[in-house]
Write a structure and sequence with these properties.
The protein is an alpha/beta fold. The chain has helices at about 30-45, 55-65, 85-95, 110-120, 125-130, 165-170; strands at about 1-10, 50-55, 75-80, 100-105, 140-145, 160-165.
Length: about 180
């Protein structure tokens, strides 16, 4: 069994004057969410042993916040993951060496949302239903994959173990943020 952790970057600021979409930074809320998610992942035993991350600033900053609470893992920053569609994201995951048991993918919508929804086995659970709606910033989907090699990852065949959203894991300090 392998685990795939699919993460949309945390909330980002708008494009700075003279900047580009790729260089957008996290907002203060996004930074807080990334750090809170890292704590949740550490407590839940979701330690990646391989990371694939878009080379965009906001994905790198999200990963940095998450990894503050986790042990170091090899990270591949890939330009091709920037605003990639689900097929590109899936190809990248399928290229991960089979030794990796837990892979964290950090990228952008709509690709990450589409990938999570397409990989999920529809068991009628509330977790799968959540993938049919939106995929807010800093949402993490945890998939259990019954494979021994990442190249064998298939659509609609993986159990959704959890869908974590910021309103759940970082609302205690600022509940009015979502009202």
């Amino acid at each position: 069994m392998k685990k795939l952790l699919i993460l949309r970057h945390a909330q980002a600021l708008g494009t700075a004057i003279g900047g580009s979409d790729k260089t957008r930074k996290l907002s203060p809320n996004g930074t807080a969410d990334a750090k809170a998610l890292g704590v949740l992942m550490a407590k839940g035993g979701l330690q990646p042993d391989a990371v694939l991350c878009s080379a965009a600033t906001r994905t790198r900053e999200t990963l940095g916040g998450v990894m503050d609470a986790l042990d170091a893992a090899p990270i591949d920053y890939l330009d091709r993951l920037y605003n990639a569609d689900y097929r590109v994201l899936m190809d990248a995951v399928q290229e991960v060496p089979s030794e990796a048991q837990v892979v964290l993918l950090v990228a952008h919508n709509p690709g990450v949302h589409q990938l999570a929804a397409r990989l999920a086995f529809d068991d009628g659970s509330e977790r799968v239903d959540r993938l049919s709606t939106d995929y807010a910033p800093a949402t993490l989907t945890v998939l259990q994959c019954d494979i021994t090699d990442w190249a064998d990852l298939k659509e609609y065949a993986n159990v959704v173990k959890a869908v974590h959203e910021t309103v759940e894991y970082n609302a205690s300090d600022r509940p009015t943020r979502w009202m």
